Amino acid sequence: MSTAPTRPAITYASAGVDTAAGDRAVELMKASVAATMTPAVVGGVGGFAGMVDVSELREYRRPLLATSTDGVGTKVAIAQAMDVHDTIGQDLVGMVVDDIAVTGARPLLMTDYIACGHVVPERIADIVRGVAQACAQVRTPLLGGETAEHPGLMGPEEYDVAGAATGVVEADRMLGAERVRTGDVLVALAASGLHSNGYSLVRRVVEHAGWALDRHVPELGRRLGEELLEPTRLYSALCLDLVEAIDPADADPAALRVRAFSHVTGGGLAANLARVLPAGLVGDVDRGSWTVPAVVDLVRTLGSVPWEDLESTLNLGVGMVAVVAPEAVDEVLRLSEAAGVPAWVLGSVHSGEGHVSRGRVVAGTKGVDGGAVDIHGSYRTA
Fold it and tell me: H or E segment at 205?
């Protein structure tokens, strides 16, 4: 009588998922996450859902919830190649929380999600520690998260990150295109580097040039990979502080002097600025009002990348733009500099009627039927 051959038992671990490693990662990140908690948070780390007490919203006349979700894109490939994982979290927070701050919304909470081919507890803890430290900087509790192991779909060293945030703003204090008017001034807030957009272009240029990430680049003053991993500057706390200082809570909502913010992410400066201008108005931007960072010029020269392509892909040194009334400009510049963020006048807002373009006009981006940006002049390089 024949018997069937004995086959080894298939377990979750043999399928590539290590739940013990996942638990170890949670233990390693708990302290970092706990440090972001505020008095409004209900419960601790490890629940099925994070909760925050929003009783204070009863004091709002008409509270609006603002939400945003984003990732970091292919910048994670640089982090993986450099085996440096504690900076990418700040990029994630910047991409998500700053997007809700542009409306004037105060962030209430953030959550994150990490997908990976194999859970390495120390690596996951590094990523989450970066997220948590950035959340603490922008006064936002990291209220929940998920780490998912995807063996067979992702390589053992691969991972990707995503996040979401929710905030609140009083309806009659919401910032945006409807507040912008002729004569307003565009104030640039400097970027810390390339931030988290355009890395498919950057990585292609570096690959084409045959440069190693550990190559020391004199004009950058450090290794190439270190420059490319420079974390995204966080603007939300500064933006909200500017609003509070210039237009305090008792100010007439109809006369707010901070009109709008534009977060310069995918699409570049002109495309994102056009999103916060109303139809019929033109933002006039002078390319010569600032010096393009060395890393941007390096990408241009290494890859023979046309300026127009750079302009529609990278931030070129401008991470956020404040659109403000003329009488608020000096205060914006002063407060920004005090916060350690270089700022300068980038241009102004004009009527589009009879406007004669002096450069490249950008409008209708991201599906927004709004104003236009006329970006002109020549860039200055170091």
Answer: helix 199-209
Show Cβ contacts of residue 137 under 8 Å, excluding neighbours closer than 6 positions: 93, 234, 237
CA distances to 107, 162, 236 from 70, rounded to whole Å, are 15, 6, 15
Tokens 């067979």 sit at which residue? 152
State how far the Cα of 271 lies from the Cα of 266, in Å rounded to an integer: 9
CA 119/CA 124 separation, integer angstroms: 7
Distance CA 211, CA 219 (A): 15
Return the pLDDT at 49. 80
Beta-strand (E) ranges in 87-239?
106-116, 142-149, 159-170, 185-190, 216-217, 222-223
- Closest Cα to residue 76, out of 140, 172, 154, 133? 154
Q: What is the pTM of this model?
A: 0.91
- Could you report the per-residue pLDDT of 176-188, keeping only the tens digit for each? 999 999 999 999 9
CA distance 20 to 208: 41
**Distance in angstroms (rounded) separating the CA atoms of residues 38 and 142:** 10
Q: Give the domains, in start order, of the chain with CATH numbers.
A: 19-173 (3.30.1330.10), 177-381 (3.90.650.10)
Q: Is 40 helix (H, G, I), strand (E, B) or coil?
A: coil
Structure tokens at 140: 């936002």
- List helix spans (H) across 19-101: 19-34, 75-82, 88-101
Consecutive 10-residue runs of the chain (382 residues): their mean pLDDT? 65 67 68 75 76 90 96 96 97 97 96 94 94 94 91 93 97 97 98 97 97 97 98 97 95 95 96 96 97 97 96 97 98 98 97 87 84 95 88
Residue 382's Cβ-count burial label (10 Å; 0-12, 13-18, 19+) is exposed
Tokens of residue 56, six digits: 């204070």
Integer-rounded Cα Rg, in Å, for the chain is 23
Q: Are strands 291-292 and 380-381 parallel, antiparallel or unpaired?
A: parallel
